[in-house]
Amino acid sequence: MKRIAITALTKMLLLGGTVCIGGESIPGILPSGFGESVDRDVARLRAATAPFHSAERALAAGYRHTDHCVEKPPEGGMGYHFDNPALRDGILELEKPETLVYERRPDGTFKLNGVEYIVPLSAWKSMEPPTIMGQSLKRADSLGFWYLHVWNWEQSPTGLFADWNPRVKCPKPAMPQGTG
Predict the structure, then answer these.
(1) Could you read off the pLDDT of 23-54 as tens digits, one per residue?
(2) From start to end of the chain, where are the E strands?
(3) Which of 1, 115, 125, 153 has the largest count of CB atoms under 10 Å?
């Protein structure tokens, strides 16, 4: 039996199949390259945030929509942040990210691309930064919090935990009538 499984796995690899042992395989997201523990966490995060592909469900769960799309050309964008103020405390919970990050589609609907974990500076008393998924959060003094992005729904060429995703774009502002 073991020999059959090894033979089948070898054939898949030779035929160009993508294999992620012990979890899902999502091109550019899983396997993450950060190890099995992070891959398990990403899979859990995806399961926990899957309902929020519907922005309406995110709003019903306490996330608040912002009207500002965050972008930094040429590095890329973050998109629209839907924040849940009730989760902004000193506690990081893998399956309860403080922020959901969306991209607005041309039809006006929102596409869930990832999450952002946030810890207010005032809520963190340790000298060491908070961590989640084996990653240290980054300190943003001007914003008053620690943060970490996870591109768990939209692959980022700059990395799973990158601030900016070159694939995320903010909509162009509409031109006033009579110009251009």
Answers:
(1) 568 998 999 999 999 999 999 999 999 999 99
(2) 64-72, 76-83, 99-104, 110-120, 131-132, 135-136, 138-140, 145-150
(3) 115
The one-letter code for the residue type at 64 is R
Question: Within a domain: residue 160?
Answer: no
State the residue range of the domain holding 137.
51-150
Overall domain count for the chain: 1
Residue 34 token pair: 């950060």
- Is the pTM higher than 0.85? The answer reads no
Is position 12 within any domain?
no
What are the residues whose beta carbons fall under 8 Å from the beta carbon of 53, sequence distance 6 or more?
111, 112, 153
CA distances from residue 51 to 18, 74, 95, 128 in whole angstroms, order as listed:
26, 31, 12, 33
Residue reference for tokens 């030779």: 14
